[in-house]
Design goal:
mainly alpha, globular, single chain
Length: 114
């Protein structure tokens, strides 16, 4: 999942919003999935390929990687969609604020947005 997010954010930055297509539902779905990751509610944070629950350290590492990739998508969406992302950004703002203490990348992004 993290690799998909990284590819999406790289593509958005390199190719612009055109890769999102003309159907707003696709963009809305990307936003919803990204928000689920940031809220720690996405199934990929709870599933494991080996049908076993990861230990706390492993779970924390998985969460960190996914959340970092989700933040990359938020940054890429903001860069690609510019002013059109303002309305959607409001739903991310509260989640991103939670990570400012632990993630310099989020702190830098929020400073840039304000």
């Amino acid at each position: 999942m993290a690799e998909i997010f990284r590819c999406l954010s790289d593509s958005l930055i390199k190719l612009g919003p055109g890769i999102l297509g003309t159907d707003e539902r696709e963009t809305t779905e990307i936003i919803a999935i990204t928000l689920l990751i940031l809220e720690r509610d996405h199934p990929s944070l709870n599933d494991d390929d080996e049908n076993r629950l990861p230990d706390d350290e492993e779970r924390a590492e998985i969460e960190l990687v996914l959340i970092d990739a989700a933040v990359d998508v938020v940054v890429a969406l903001a860069k690609a969609l510019k002013g059109n992302f303002i309305r959607d950004f409001e739903s991310f703002y509260r989640q991103l604020v939670k990570f400012t203490v632990h993630c310099p990348k989020v702190k830098m992004f929020l400073t840039f947005v304000e």
